[in-house]
Structure formats: C-alpha cells, structure tokens
From TrEMBL:
Segments forming domain ABC transporter: 4-241
Keywords for the protein's UniProt record, in alphabetical order: ATP-binding, Cell membrane, Membrane, Nucleotide-binding, Transport
Residues of the signal peptide: none
Name this protein carries in UniProt: Carbohydrate ABC transporter ATP-binding protein, CUT1 family
C-alpha cells in the first residue's frame, strides 16, 4: 500500500499548451492517504481516466510529479510502480483457463504453488467463478471475462495500489452490486489503497471512503458521501450528487438574507460581501412546498412517484425547482410557495461555496 501524492500535477494532450483551457488535467496538489478507498467521480471528459493513467504510469504528465510514499515515481514505468489496474473492457488471455488467468500475476512473480492455489480459489469465490476455473476464457461472455479481469487485479496482496477504470460497465446490474460489495470487503480485509474511476454516483458513494469529484479537468471537492451531500463545495457537486440534484437559484445577498427575483429569503446567518455571481443552492430534501405568503412563489408543474418518495417539479421565477416529499404525504391543492430549511442552504460565488460566518474551519 502507498500514500499517493499529486504535486503540481497537470496534463495537456497538445504539444505546446499556453493557457489553462489547453489542459485536460488542470493543476492538482493532493495527498491520498495510504490504505483508503477513493472514487474519482465526474462526467465523461472531465479528466478521470487521464489522472488514473498518470498514476499508473501509462501516461507521463506535462508538468508536476507523482509520489508513492514520498518517492518520486513520475518517470518510473508501470512495472516498477507495483500497482494493479483493471480497465473498462476485459483484458484476458483467451487461450488460458480461468484458473491460469487468475494465477498469472502470482506465478509471474514466483509465488509458492500452494499459496497460488489458495489465493486463486479465494478470488474465484469472490467473483462467483468457482465452477468455471477449468474453462478456457475464449467463448465466455463479456461480463464473465470482466470478472476475470477484476479477479486478476485483486489476486495480489502486496500491491501499492489497486486502480479501477469504470470496471463494471459490461457487468449486469445484479452482479454490479455484488462486486461492489466484494470490493469493499476486500478493502476492509487487506487495506489496499484503491482508486475507482466512475461516472455513476451510486458506485462512487457505495464504494469509497472518500469521493473525488472532478469537473472540467480539476478536483472540485474531495470528501465523504455525507460531506458531498450536505456541503457541496461547488455547484457542480450539488448538481451531480443526488437524485435529483441540488436546486440552484440566482440571488443577491443582503445581511443575513438572500434576495431572489425581488423576494427576500432569510438565511439565518451572514455570508459577508463576496463579489461575483451569487447563487443559493438547496437540495430537494431541504425544500418545502407550502401555502400562504411566506417563501418564494411557486407553481407545481407535475408530481412523480418514484416509490420511496414523491418528487414535485415546480416553477420558481422560470427555474425548475425540485421538492422531495414523503410517499404518503398529500400535496395541498392551493400549494403556491416554497421555503428552505436554513441548515440546508448553501451560498455560492462564481460556483464556489462561501463559508457562512461562524462556521468552523
């Protein structure tokens, strides 16, 4: 296992980058702790796979360094980094049996035959392929081959890090859940440093100790699932995490209140006098549909029953606002306003969260 340090790291696929927009991966300075499980989460093209390939040694960064436990490995080839990587699509040896595919990384390093046998059987049980160990990989389905790839990535216990690049894309939904659970169990048992690339928030939030949210080539927030939900540090995090995502409304600040399209909303605390574009962000879980004169005028457009709860889609000054209510909760026929739970309100300047006065560092 290894602590992974990104030091002044950036990458461009252009030969002579001259401005920030030329970089697919903008400057990063982060420490990822030894033995933790991280998920790199973001939309396609945000830089997740680029960063993973730099960590693994498949790609050399345009600037900066990668360190494993303080040792500079920026110029070290993949083989010398002692990592295991599983890609989006299966990479297996078709002429080998499932058993030999799983055993290959251990035999290649001269592991004891008895240990190889025990470890292969353990991994085969984990990926549900005990009955297929003597079958050739050729002719197996894509999801079966990907399970072999996952197993081969997990079979070594002595790696610095396990890297997964959207490894469950070709796996059927039921097996996805099982494999995510098994990966989490593996991490708890052996304490590997794991980095898991995905665009699926469910995968990220159920797998990782810390989720690293990327947007436009940069890390916009790294935190626990609870931190990302309650305190999104960037409006993209609020939008991307949650279903539906955070409601975002243009506003101005006035003392301990926000003014949204001329209507004053009490925030319960001050946010200073920041410059830039001001927005208020509130998750649907902290948004209430009411009647009367208090709050923002709203017009209910439709109600969606998703089983566990209902999602109310409302129009507020031309912006769609989502409200989550209980499955059995009735919606008043004359509902015409929305209010916010003060503890669920975040304020943003140019898309970045402003810390309210009195909030601990």
């Amino acid at each position: 296992m290894a602590k992974i340090t990104l030091d002044n790291l950036a990458h461009s696929y252009l030969p002579n980058p001259s401005r920030e927009d030329d970089f697919a991966l903008k400057e990063l300075n982060h420490d990822w702790r030894d033995g933790e499980a991280y998920a790199l989460l973001g939309a396609s093209g945000c830089g997740k796979s680029t960063l993973l390939n730099i960590i693994s040694g498949l790609l050399h960064p345009s600037q900066g360094r990668i360190l494993f436990d303080g040792k500079d490995v920026t110029d070290a080839p993949t083989a010398q980094r002692n990592i295991a990587q599983v890609f989006q699509f299966p990479v297996v040896y078709d002429t080998m049996t499932v058993r030999d595919n799983l055993a290959f990384p251990l035999r290649n390093r001269g592991a004891d035959a008895a240990y190889v046998k025990d470890r292969v059987n353990q991994i085969a049980a984990m990926i549900g392929m005990e009955d297929m160990l003597n079958r050739k990989a050729r002719g197996l389905t894509a999801d079966a081959k990907q399970k072999i790839s996952l197993g081969r990535g997990m079979v070594r216990e002595d790696v610095n890090a396990l890297l997964f690049d959207e490894p469950l894309t070709v796996i059927d939904p039921h097996m996805k859940w099982e494999l995510r659970t098994q990966l989490k169990s593996l991490h708890h048992e052996f304490g590997h440093t794991m980095i898991y690339v995905t665009h699926d928030q469910t995968e990220a939030l159920t797998f990782a100790d810390k989720v690293v949210v990327m947007y436009d080539g940069r890390v916009v927030q790294m935190g626990t699932p609870q931190e990302l939900f309650e305190r999104p540090e960037h409006t993209f995090v609020g939008y991307f995490i949650g279903s539906p995502g955070m409601n975002v409304l243009d506003a101005t600040l006035s003392g301990t209140s926000a003014v949204i399209s001329g209507t004053q909303v009490d925030l319960g605390r001050g946010f200073g006098t920041p410059g830039g574009k001001i927005e208020v962000g509130v998750r649907p879980e902290f948004t209430r549909l009411t009647t009367g004169d208090a709050g923002l005028p709203a017009r209910v457009k439709r109600v969606e029953d998703v089983g566990r709860h209902k999602i109310v889609r409302a129009d507020v000054f031309g912006t769609e606002v989502n409200i989550i209510i209980g499955e059995s909760e009735e919606i008043p026929a004359d509902a015409n306003r929305i209010t916010f739970d003060p503890e669920g309100v975040n304020v943003y300047a140019d898309s970045w969260r402003i810390k309210p006065e009195g909030e601990a560092a």
